[in-house]
Amino acid sequence: MDGLARRDLVEALTRARLLLDPASGGAFVIRPFRTGEPAMIAARQSLLYAESHGWGRELETLESEVTAAFLRDFNPAREQCWVADIDGVLAGAVFVTDEGDGVARLRLLHVEPFARRRGIGDALVARCVGFARDTGYHTLMLWTHTVLESARRIYAAQGFVCVETAMHDAFGVPLQGETWRLELAA
């Protein structure tokens, strides 16, 4: 068995253990993304939101476009993707992208169902806020939806405020989208 096959097997067995007993995992670690992970993150989010909210191909298209642009234009001094993992299994992720003119955008935050209630979402958002501040952005923006109550609580706790609400059907179902903003400049 080669190295990749061995890693795949260990990850699959660990994931099975975490799915069967979520409390069995160790502490989570947040690290920069590795090759192949942005596309996996987009695919995983598409599956999770299709299952939980009925969001379809339109969301998958948007997520794929976001990750493709991130990889194509990646500037590690201004952008990042972080992955939270538990025992080597991807447990969540988030991106920060440079929107220009001193504005950064938090994108594609998610936490796997087996890993929720461990503080991963809070830690990922805090990492984005710290990075945006340290990098010299004056504003950090994000777009979310009213049905994503846990994420909205995390954003509010980090100091973001909702600045715009609008209905749309961009994911194949009617939704109330929200734009949130965090001012970083002192």
TrEMBL record:
GO terms assigned for molecular function: N-acetyltransferase activity
Keywords for this protein: Transferase
InterPro entries: Acyl_CoA_acyltransferase (IPR016181), GNAT_dom (IPR000182), NAT_camello-type (IPR050769)
Stored Pfam families: Acetyltransf_1 (PF00583)
Residues covered by the N-acetyltransferase domain: 28-186
Name assigned to this protein: N-acetyltransferase domain-containing protein
